[in-house]
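Risk register update: the risk of archive-format incompatibility is retired. Evidence:
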Amino acid sequence: MPALLKGFIERVFQADLAHVQMKRQKVKILEGRSARVIVTTGMPAWLYRWWYRGYAVKMLRHNILGFMGVHPVRTTILGSVERVRVRRREKWLRQVEVLGRKAI
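Archived output:
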Protein backbone atom coordinates (compact mmCIF):
# COMPACT_ATOMS: atom_id res chain seq x y z
CA MET A 1 0.00 0.00 0.00
CA PRO A 2 1.39 3.44 -0.82
CA ALA A 3 2.59 5.33 2.24
CA LEU A 4 0.44 8.34 1.36
CA LEU A 5 -2.74 6.22 1.38
CA LYS A 6 -1.77 4.47 4.60
CA GLY A 7 -1.03 7.81 6.28
CA PHE A 8 -4.39 9.21 5.11
CA ILE A 9 -6.29 6.21 6.47
CA GLU A 10 -4.44 6.32 9.78
CA ARG A 11 -5.13 10.04 10.19
CA VAL A 12 -8.79 9.93 9.23
CA PHE A 13 -9.60 6.79 11.21
CA GLN A 14 -7.56 7.34 14.36
CA ALA A 15 -8.02 4.75 17.08
CA ASP A 16 -9.85 7.19 19.35
CA LEU A 17 -12.27 8.05 16.55
CA ALA A 18 -12.70 4.50 15.29
CA HIS A 19 -14.38 3.23 18.42
CA VAL A 20 -16.90 4.77 20.76
CA GLN A 21 -16.78 3.75 24.40
CA MET A 22 -20.18 2.57 25.59
CA LYS A 23 -20.31 1.12 29.09
CA ARG A 24 -16.81 -0.38 28.89
CA GLN A 25 -17.48 -1.98 25.50
CA LYS A 26 -15.96 -0.74 22.29
CA VAL A 27 -18.48 -0.25 19.50
CA LYS A 28 -17.13 -0.14 15.96
CA ILE A 29 -18.58 2.97 14.34
CA LEU A 30 -18.52 1.53 10.81
CA GLU A 31 -20.18 -1.73 11.82
CA GLY A 32 -22.56 -2.95 9.13
CA ARG A 33 -20.87 -1.03 6.31
CA SER A 34 -19.36 -2.69 3.27
CA ALA A 35 -16.51 -1.70 0.97
CA ARG A 36 -14.96 -2.45 -2.38
CA VAL A 37 -11.18 -2.26 -2.64
CA ILE A 38 -9.88 -1.55 -6.15
CA VAL A 39 -6.20 -2.28 -6.63
CA THR A 40 -4.11 -1.42 -9.67
CA THR A 41 -0.77 -3.09 -10.20
CA GLY A 42 1.97 -3.13 -12.80
CA MET A 43 2.11 -6.93 -12.85
CA PRO A 44 -0.60 -9.26 -14.09
CA ALA A 45 -3.43 -9.60 -11.58
CA TRP A 46 -3.20 -13.41 -11.51
CA LEU A 47 0.51 -13.18 -10.66
CA TYR A 48 -0.19 -10.72 -7.84
CA ARG A 49 -2.83 -13.05 -6.39
CA TRP A 50 -0.67 -16.16 -6.78
CA TRP A 51 2.84 -14.96 -5.93
CA TYR A 52 2.08 -12.27 -3.33
CA ARG A 53 -1.23 -13.86 -2.30
CA GLY A 54 -2.81 -10.41 -2.38
CA TYR A 55 -0.90 -9.40 0.76
CA ALA A 56 -1.66 -5.68 0.64
CA VAL A 57 -5.35 -6.36 0.02
CA LYS A 58 -5.51 -8.81 2.93
CA MET A 59 -3.78 -6.31 5.19
CA LEU A 60 -6.22 -3.57 4.22
CA ARG A 61 -9.24 -5.87 4.61
CA HIS A 62 -8.35 -7.32 7.98
CA ASN A 63 -6.12 -4.82 9.77
CA ILE A 64 -7.81 -1.59 8.74
CA LEU A 65 -11.33 -2.15 7.43
CA GLY A 66 -11.99 -5.17 9.66
CA PHE A 67 -10.80 -3.23 12.71
CA MET A 68 -13.30 -0.50 11.84
CA GLY A 69 -16.16 -2.99 11.49
CA VAL A 70 -16.46 -2.89 7.69
CA HIS A 71 -17.74 -6.19 6.35
CA PRO A 72 -18.04 -7.58 3.67
CA VAL A 73 -15.09 -6.25 1.68
CA ARG A 74 -15.06 -7.06 -2.00
CA THR A 75 -11.92 -6.79 -4.10
CA THR A 76 -11.20 -5.87 -7.72
CA ILE A 77 -7.60 -6.22 -8.91
CA LEU A 78 -6.63 -4.64 -12.22
CA GLY A 79 -3.23 -5.83 -13.38
CA SER A 80 -0.62 -4.77 -15.94
CA VAL A 81 -2.06 -1.27 -15.93
CA GLU A 82 0.91 0.39 -17.64
CA ARG A 83 1.11 -2.15 -20.46
CA VAL A 84 -2.52 -2.42 -21.56
CA ARG A 85 -4.09 -0.52 -24.40
CA VAL A 86 -6.17 2.58 -23.89
CA ARG A 87 -9.33 0.69 -24.88
CA ARG A 88 -8.73 -1.81 -22.05
CA ARG A 89 -8.25 1.00 -19.53
CA GLU A 90 -11.48 2.63 -20.70
CA LYS A 91 -13.26 -0.70 -20.23
CA TRP A 92 -11.91 -0.91 -16.68
CA LEU A 93 -13.07 2.65 -15.96
CA ARG A 94 -16.56 1.80 -17.20
CA GLN A 95 -16.55 -1.37 -15.08
CA VAL A 96 -15.52 0.59 -11.98
CA GLU A 97 -18.14 3.24 -12.73
CA VAL A 98 -20.86 0.56 -12.93
CA LEU A 99 -19.70 -0.92 -9.61
CA GLY A 100 -19.80 2.54 -8.05
CA ARG A 101 -23.29 3.28 -9.32
CA LYS A 102 -24.56 -0.06 -8.03
CA ALA A 103 -22.72 0.53 -4.75
CA ILE A 104 -21.34 -3.02 -4.73
